[in-house]
Amino acid sequence: MAIKALTKLESILLILVVLVLILAIAGWTRPMQPAQTSPTQTVTPKAEKLYYVPILDKWMSENEIKEEIKKEGTIIVADWTYGGLVETYHVPAFKNYVKERWGVDIEVKWIGTQEPEVIVSSVLQAVKAGQPAPYDVVAIEAPYFFRAKKANAIEAAIYVGNPLMPNLKYVHSFFLQFQPYSVVFQAIDTAGLLVNTEKAGWIEDYADLADPRLKGHVILPTPGTVHFANFLVNLALAMGKNYKSPQEMTEVIKFAAEKIHPNVLRYTVSEAEIIEYLERGEAWAVAWWWYLAPVEAAKGYPIERVAQPQGSVFIPGIAWIPKNAKHPVLAQIFIDFLMSPEFWFALDYPEYRESKEDFLMLHQNLLNDTNFDLLPDWIKPIYSKIYPYPLDKMYEWYVFPDYEYIEEHTEEWSNLYKQYAGLT
């Protein structure tokens, strides 16, 4: 029997049937997959960043630091009075600083004084007795810092890298030369010469006070005061003499008594008197403090400071944290605040930027040269005439002397001067 050949259409249909059967068989024999369920994911909480907090000697999270600030609640600062600006500027500015950065409300007790001896003595007594320090931060004249450091009464907590003091990394190195024990926060508190540039603009150093052209126009500090001792040390620097050499210092004192004393208009440590003589044009050269230069210049008087090339005695404010401070975290935050542009430039207080008198009282340093642009416009043209700018000039202009040695010899030097000058 002959097999009938499949037509082309039948062949195609047969192939399709075979394919369908193969697919069906494959579907029946394939093992069933169990229903898929999403695995339960374990979420690992992100680790909190920790910061090493000096004095407490602990690694703490930001939240833990905030809780510590709440726990401390108050800071006690020993500082100056700043012409009555403490309650209206300094205290509220620091409270706002803490609130904005840490979200915590605090109280500030500001012990304003012009008697730093009382401040440092109470700190040293407390440390010696193993008692809590009466203040959390001390910000007074340099000699008292060195005395406290010598007595091992200061915490080693002020340094670049302290997480509570981020502003320090932007501060000029001159202000940080005593880290980790302190920070220099003033750039102009110098025992230096003030001159009337219209009358005696030719003065270059203390030795020039002997020039006969100045007869009756020089004001010196009262003999017997540390201010007078600073005058003698500055004169020694100008003459290239060693103030620690009794023989050389005798030469300096004799020169002052014989050559400068005849030119003296008045001996005084009354700032009110000094200002009066300067503004009347009677005092052409005054051995006093540089901070008076910007005050008088802002009033329109031709008063500038003289930066003698040999350097001048520098007695700035230096801030430090006593051992056994009751509120160590807020103390460290205060140091950061003290070296912030917000504070020294009154960035959040436009009324103090506009007031020349107030701004000159609160502005103590530039922090770094780039901050020049933050100054009020009215002071920029005269800034370099009354403040050190650029700040590297501080290394040339300023001398940190042996304050203790000067204090010990003040009476001796003064008596010798009065003897040579014929003063009773």
Task: Please tell me about this protein's structure.
By secondary structure, this protein is α/β, with parallel strands linked by helices. 42% of the residues lie in helices and 14% in strands. It contains 17 helices and 14 strands. Strands 7, 8, 9, 10, 11, 12 and 14 form a seven-stranded mixed β-sheet that branches. A five-stranded mixed β-sheet has the order 4-3-5-13-6, with helices on both faces. The longest helix is centred in the N-terminal third of the chain and has 22 residues, at 8-29. The protein is globular and about 75 Å long. It starts with 7 loop residues before the first helix and ends with a helix.
Quick tags:
424 residues; alpha/beta; five-stranded mixed beta sheet; 14 strands; 14% strand; disordered N terminus
Write the layout of secondary structure elements.
Layout: H1 8-29, E1 50-53, E2 58-61, H2 62-72, E3 74-79, H3 86-102, E4 107-112, H4 116-129, E5 137-141, H5 142-150, E6 183-184, E7 190-196, H6 197-200, E8 218-220, H7 226-238, H8 246-260, E9 264-267, H9 271-279, E10 285-289, H10 292-298, E11 303-306, E12 312-314, E13 317-320, H11 328-338, H12 341-344, H13 350-354, H14 356-362, H15 383-386, H16 393-397, E14 398-399, H17 403-421
Parallel strand pairs: 3-4, 3-5, 8-9, 8-10, 12-14
Antiparallel strand pairs: 1-2, 5-13, 6-13, 7-10, 7-11, 7-12
Helix pairs in contact: 4-5, 7-17, 8-17
